[in-house]
Design a protein that fits this description.
Elements: E1 8-12, E2 17-18, E3 21-22, H1 24-37, E4 41-44, H2 56-70, E5 75-78, H3 84-96, E6 101-105, H4 114-127, E7 132-136, H5 138-141, H6 147-153, E8 159-164, H7 169-179, E9 184-187, H8 193-198, E10 203-206, H9 213-224, H10 228-237, H11 239-244, H12 252-260, H13 277-289
Parallel strand pairs: 1-4, 1-10, 4-5, 5-6, 6-7, 7-8, 8-9
Antiparallel strand pairs: 2-3
Length: 293
Amino acid sequence: MKKPVFEGSSVAIVTPFRSGRLDLEAMEKLIDMQKIAGTAAITVCGTTGESSTMTRDEKIEAIRLVKNRAGAIPVIAGAGSNSTDGAVKKALDAQNAGADAVLCVTPYYNKCTQQGLIAHYTAIANAVDIPVIVYNVPSRTGMTIAPETYEALAKIENINGVKEASGDIPLIVKIRRMCGDELNIWSGNDDIIVPMMSVGAKGVISVAANIIPEKMAELTACALRGDFTRAAEIQTKYSRLIELMFSEVNPIPVKCALSLMGLISNELRLPLTPLSGANRDKLTYEMKKAGLI
């Protein structure tokens, strides 16, 4: 049995920018908000953190800041690449910067076979001393991980689990059947946290937790103790807000939401651009309805 890196809600935290540079003061405020809310882990430099447009030095700086500010909360650092050598180097950077675990997306664009996936993750796992979390997100990478591949990865000691963002519940059930407690599962989709936890997921790595961290923490806590009635109530209540977090490519909407809350500047790095007027109006309405602004 592998002890999970965390149980509950991990925020996939945004990276605040101001005038083209990291806004470290804003990031500290975001971390403090997560600590107060009961967030179980902080995932930094992931997709929501715009890692693809951050420099190596910026990533190291961001990971160190989060680690120093987070206190006892585990810090998970994005370290994925479509180059195995690149992923290994990013994972080592994250480990040296103080990360408690790394999150590594499947290779994208050049893709690979299932055997290539096993070799890719084996190389990363052998290079670092901290837990590795696999990240399966077919909508972004154009490939998915087969159940038999998960079974092979589960046998590697410091591959701790997977952030599953395929939205495929039958796949989750099959992974649970084949891997049991040797591979922890976290939802990578905010809209199906309850269904995934009902079949054994240990929580979520969440975009919506940037703006409603207390609710994501409560939802996952309820599910972990078996109160799926209350968990479903929270999931349903915030379903429209969660839906709007993906009205355009993540993290465009969540950065807009945080700016409406006065927490960050609504600044993204190209090719990402600010939320369009119509979607901004819908998001503003829903946030007012939820009492967030």
